[in-house]
Design a protein that fits this description.
Helix content is about 45%, strand content about 15%. The protein is built from four helices and six strands, in the order H-H-H-H-E-E-E-E-E-E. Helix 3 runs antiparallel to helix 4.
Length: about 220
């Protein structure tokens, strides 16, 4: 064979001038050679369809869970806003009864320059006392309690000392209440303003008088 004939044979693409297909078997990446026949593909088709159906179902579940989570978040935000806006609705409803009682008392009150009969004045005072009682009952129904610590030991967590004075109660105890306090649960809304006793008052036989204590005087809060 001449060199010319060899070069012609090298230039041919397969037999009869056609490029022959690659007959090498299919390979999985990084794995041994795998060659699937039509029968193999037909046999695996149901399994592939089942996997596709499972993936589709999982996608639907994820979308539903995401939608439910978003709805829950929006509902929680709406409930939080409503709770902040209408938290005192029940308390305000109870106070409406107190306001109505005050309105009735004011409507029954006589004119400023008009003479007042004793029975009218007595009825007016009784109405005010009943209204005050109803107000404090409404406060207690909502967890607001009044602090009236007369005779109790001074507690700096609940009381605010405004003065000291000698009295019948032991030293370091509340002698008088200038203004009552209020608490809600364990939280102080307003501390009670009190006068703290310095001990027994001096006897008249000694002829001495204790110097008056003015507001702002030092109070022994450790008592």
């Amino acid at each position: 064979m001449s060199k010319h004939d060899y070069e012609l044979n090298q230039g041919q693409e397969g037999r009869n001038g056609r490029q022959e297909p690659d007959a090498s078997p299919e390979r999985d990446e990084g794995g041994p050679a795998v060659q699937l026949t039509e029968d193999d593909r037909a046999e695996k088709a149901p399994e592939v369809e089942a996997l596709r159906a499972q993936v589709s179902e999982l996608n639907d579940r994820v979308l539903r869970f995401a939608a439910e989570l978003e709805n829950t978040r929006r509902r929680a935000e709406r409930e939080k806003a409503d709770a902040s806006r209408y938290a005192i609705a029940a308390f305000a409803r109870d106070l409406l009864n107190v306001a109505d009682a005050f309105d009735r008392a004011l409507a029954a009150a006589p004119e400023e320059s008009a003479p007042v009969a004793p029975e009218i004045f007595s009825a007016f005072v009784s109405g005010l006392k009943m209204t005050d009682k109803e107000l404090h009952a409404a406060l207690e129904r909502h967890g607001v309690k009044r602090i009236d610590p007369k005779g109790e030991k001074f507690d700096p967590n609940l009381h605010q000392a405004v003065a000291q004075a000698p009295g019948e109660v032991p030293s370091g105890h509340v002698l008088d209440v200038v203004q009552p306090g209020f608490v809600i649960g364990d939280r102080v809304l307003r501390a009670a303003m009190v006068v703290v006793s310095t001990g027994d008052a001096p006897s008249s036989a000694s002829g001495g008088e204790a110097p008056p204590q003015t507001p702002g005087s030092r109070v022994d809060t450790s008592a």
